[in-house]
Design goal:
The protein contains 30 helices and eight strands. The chain has about 650 residues and is an alpha/beta fold. It has four domains: about 170 residues, Rossmann fold (3-Layer(aba) Sandwich); about 60 residues, Helicase, Ruva Protein, domain 3; about 120 residues, Zinc Finger, Delta Prime, domain 3 (Up-down Bundle), CATH 1.20.272.10; about 200 residues, GMP Synthetase, Chain A, domain 3 (2-Layer Sandwich), CATH 3.30.300. It is elongated and about 90 Å long. The N and C termini lie far apart (about 90 Å). Bound molecules: zinc ion (ZN). The site of zinc ion has 8 residues, from helix 4. Zinc ion (ZN) binds next to helix 4.
C-alpha cells in the first residue's frame, strides 16, 4: 500500500471558498469572475506557502469551466475534472517554473506558442511561478504579449518578490498581495483537518505548529504531517511536538520565569544548565523565553476580559501566566523582553551561545547595574511593589499596584494619614533596610534559617527539590482550587514557592495583607492537604512576605525570622513608620564597624545576591540608599525629625 499523499496536497483547495486567510484576494477575484471582468494578466505576490499558486490554479479552473467563467466551477465538466485536485491537468493551462525556465529563449518560445488558440478550453492560461526569476530580457520578450494579448490568453504571475518583476510588466497586471495566514485562522484550520483525518491532537500542540509554520499553510501542514507520522496510537501529544519541533518544553520556561520572578539566580542557572543538557538550542530557548515574556507583557497590560484572542493560549494557561505576570512589574517585564531580544540578535552567529544566554539572564537579574531608563524603571517598579507590600495592609488602596489585579482587599486597621508619596517613601524605605540589622541582632534564629536558604541551588527534600515543587506547583494549585477557591485565588495570584527544606514549604506572598488573609482563613491547612493529595508529602506550611526583590536583603532576613519566631514577620503599623532618625540609629552599630551584626548583615546581602551592587549596604546611610535606589535628593533633613 502506498503511503498517502502529503496533507498539503490532499487538502489543496479547489475553489476560492476553501482558500483560508486570503479573503482580501479571493473576494475581489470571485467578484471579477462573477461579473465577467477578468483581467488578462494577474500578479499574485506574497510569502511562500500561503496560496498563490493554488489560487492561480483555481482562477484557471474558474475561467475554463464550461458553465463559467464562474467563481464556483461546476466540478463535473471536462476542464473542471482535469484541473481538479489530483486531476491530470489541462493542456491549455500551462504552468512554468521561472526558476528553471526564466531565460530569454524560454520567453521567446512561450511567445510563439501563446498565439495558438487553446485546444479545448475557453482560455489558454499561463501560470508563471517564481516570476521574479524571469530575466530582464525574458520579461522584455514577453512585454508586447502581456501588453496586448490575444483574446484567448490569460497570464498569472506568482512571486514572492514582486519588486523584482520589472515595472513595465507589473504595471500591466492586476496585483493581488497575499498575506501570511493569521494564527487563529490557521489553528482552527489545523484542528478541522485533524478531525477530518481522525487524528487525536492535544490542543496545546496547535499553537506550536502554527508557530513553526510561521503563517504559511503549506509549512504548517508539513509540520502537522510530520507530527502525525511520528505519533503513536494516542495521537499527537505535546511532548512529542516539543521534542520534534525543538521547542523548549513549557516546564523549562516556567522554571525560568519563576526563577526570574523570585530573583533566584541559582535556580535560573540550573535551568540553563538543564536546557543545554537536554540538547535544546540556546537560541531557540531564548526565542521561546522572549515569546513567553511577550505573553506576560500582554497579560499585564490588557484587562483580563479582553485577553482572549490576543494570545494563543488556553484558559488555564492564561490563568497560570496571569500568576506569573503578577509577580513582575510591567517595566521589569518589558525590560527583560528587551534584554532577551537584544541577546537574540547578539547570539546570531555567535560561537558560544550558551555564554551569551547566561550573561543575558544575569543582566535581567541585575537591574541595579543598568543605568538606562528601562533599568531605572525596573528598579522603581521593584521599589514601588516593595513599598506597596509594606503599606498595603494599612492603605485601603489595592489599585496602587496594577500588576496585581486580584490583590485581596487588605484587612482594615488604622489607616495612615500619609499618602503613598514621598513621605512614605522616605519613611518606609530606611525602615525596611534597617530592620534586618535589628532583627539579626535580636534573633540568632533568623541567621540560621537564613543561611539554610543560602545555597539557592535545588535542595533535595524527600526526593523533591525546590525546582521540582515549582514545576509541580500548578497541580498543587489545582488541588487547592478544589478544596477552597479563595485560597486558590490568593495563591495563584499573589504567591510563589520560596523554599523547600526540612519538610517545610515556605510560601512567599506579595504583601502582608495577602499573607494575613492566607493564614487567618486557614490557607496553610488547605495547602498542606493539597500537598498531601498531589505530592504525597506532609509538610508544614510557612507563609512569609516576599516580594521578589533582591535589593531588599532586609526582607529575606526579616521574613525568615518568621518561621522560627512566629509573631514578628509583620511589624505593627506604627513600627513600620519608623522615622528616619530611628532608622539611622539602627544602622549605626553596623556602620561603626566590626560588631557581630555588621558581619551578619553583610552575609545576608551576599547570600541573597552576591553580585549585587549593594553588597556594601551596611556602609550606606539611609540617605545614600534613597539617593541610589530612587535618585532621591534629600533636601530637608530637619523635616523628618519634626515629623
Ligand atoms: Zn466545470
Amino acid at each position: 500500500m502506498d503511503a498517502p499523499l502529503a496533507l498539503y496536497r490532499r487538502y489543496r483547495p479547489d475553489t476560492f471558498v476553501d482558500v483560508i486567510g486570503q479573503a482580501h484576494v479571493t473576494g475581489p477575484l470571485s467578484a471579477a469572475l462573477e461579473n465577467n471582468r477578468v483581467s488578462h494578466a494577474y500578479l499574485f505576490s506574497g510569502p511562500r506557502g500561503c496560496g498563490k499558486t493554488t489560487s492561480a490554479r483555481i482562477l484557471a479552473r474558474a475561467l475554463n469551466c464550461e458553465t463559467g467563467p464562474s467563481p464556483t466551477p461546476c466540478g463535473t465538466c471536462e476542464s473542471c475534472v482535469e484541473l481538479a485536485r489530483g486531476g491530470p491537468g489541462s493542456v491549455d493551462v500551462i504552468e512554468i517554473d521561472a526558476a528553471s525556465h526564466g531565460g530569454v529563449d524560454d520567453a521567446r518560445e512561450l511567445r510563439e506558442r501563446a498565439f495558438f488558440a487553446p485546444m479545448k478550453a475557453r482560455y489558454k492560461v499561463y501560470i508563471i511561478d517564481e516570476a521574479h526569476m524571469v530575466t530582464t530580457q525574458g520579461f522584455n520578450a514577453l512585454l508586447k504579449l502581456v501588453e496586448e494579448p490575444p483574446a484567448h490568453l490569460r497570464f498569472i504571475f506568482a512571486t514572492t518578490e514582486p519588486d523584482k518583476v520589472i515595472g513595465t510588466i507589473r504595471s500591466r497586471t492586476h496585483h493581488y498581495p497575499f498575506r501570511l495566514v493569521p494564527p487563529k485562522v490557521l489553528g482552527d484550520y489545523l484542528l478541522d483537518l485533524c478531525a477530518l483525518e481522525g487524528v487525536t491532537i492535544e490542543p496545546t500542540v496547535v499553537p506550536l505548529i502554527v508557530r513553526a509554520g510561521a503563517g504559511s499553510v503549506r509549512d504548517s501542514l508539513s509540520v502537522l504531517d510530520q507530527l502525525i507520522g511520528g505519533s503513536g496510537p494516542e495521537g499527537v501529544s505535546y511532548s512529542l511536538a516539543t521534542a520534534l519541533l525543538g521547542y523548549t518544553p513549557d516546564s523549562l520556561i516556567d522554571q525560568t520565569i519563576d526563577a526570574l520572578a523570585a530573583d533566584d539566580g541559582g535556580t535560573l542557572f540550573a535551568v540553563i544548565d538543564k536546557v543545554i543538557d537536554t540538547g535544546q538550542d540556546p537560541r531557540r530557548f531564548a526565542e521561546d523565553l522572549l515569546h513567553r515574556l511577550r505573553d506576560l507583557v500582554v497579560i499585564s497590560t490588557v484587562p483580563p476580559g479582553a485577553i482572549q484572542g490576543l494570545l494563543e493560549l488556553s484558559g488555564d494557561q492564561v490563568e497560570r501566566l496571569s500568576g506569573q505576570a503578577a509577580r513582575f512589574g510591567r517595566p521589569e517585564l518589558t525590560r527583560a523582553a528587551d534584554i532577551v531580544s537584544q541577546g537574540l540578535t547578539d547570539m546570531r552567529g555567535a560561537t558560544a551561545p550558551r555564554l551569551l544566554l547566561e550573561l543575558m539572564c544575569a543582566r535581567i537579574l541585575l537591574p541595579g547595574i543598568d543605568s538606562s531608563a528601562e533599568g531605572l524603571g525596573a528598579r522603581v517598579a521593584r521599589l514601588e511593589r516593595r513599598l506597596s507590600g509594606v503599606g498595603e495592609a494599612d492603605h485601603a488602596a489595592p489599585a496602587r499596584s496594577p500588576s496585581r489585579p486580584l490583590a485581596p482587599s487588605p484587612s482594615p486597621s488604622q489607616p495612615l494619614a500619609a499618602p503613598p508619596a514621598a513621605v512614605d517613601l522616605v519613611d518606609a524605605s530606611p525602615a525596611a533596610e534597617t530592620q534586618p540589622a535589628r532583627q539579626a541582632a535580636q534573633s540568632p534564629a533568623a541567621l540560621e534559617s537564613n543561611s539554610s536558604e543560602a545555597p539557592p541551588a535545588p535542595v533535595e527534600v524527600a526526593g523533591l527539590s525546590l525546582v521540582d515543587v515549582r514545576q509541580l506547583w500548578p497541580g498543587v494549585l489545582d488541588r487547592v482550587k478544589k478544596l477552597r477557591r479563595y485560597t486558590w485565588i490568593l495563591l495563584s495570584q499573589n504567591a510563589h514557592v520560596k523554599d523547600v527544606a526540612d519538610r517545610v514549604i515556605t510560601i512567599g506572598l506579595v504583601n502582608s495583607g495577602a499573607r494575613d488573609n492566607f493564614l487567618s482563613r486557614g490557607g496553610d491547612e488547605i495547602l498542606r492537604q493539597a500537598l498531601i493529595d498531589e505530592l504525597g508529602v506532609d509538610w508544614r506550611v510557612e507563609a512569609i512576605i516576599d516580594i521578589p526583590d533582591s535589593n531588599a536583603p532586609s526582607r529575606t532576613a526579616r521574613e525568615h525570622a518568621g518561621p522560627t519566631a512566629p509573631a514578628p514577620a509583620v511589624a505593627p503599623a506604627d513600627e513600620r513608620r519608623v522615622d528616619v532618625e530611628a532608622a539611622k540609629e539602627a544602622i549605626r552599630p553596623t556602620r561603626n564597624g566590626a560588631s557581630k551584626p555588621a558581619a551578619t548583615h553583610q552575609d545576608d546581602v551576599s547570600e541573597v545576591r552576591d553580585d549585587d551592587e549593594i553588597v556594601d549596604d551596611a556602609a550606606l546611610s539611609s540617605h545614600d540608599l534613597l539617593a541610589r535606589e530612587l535618585g532621591a535628593q534629600i533636601i530637608d533633613d530637619i523635616r523628618h525629625d519634626s515629623a
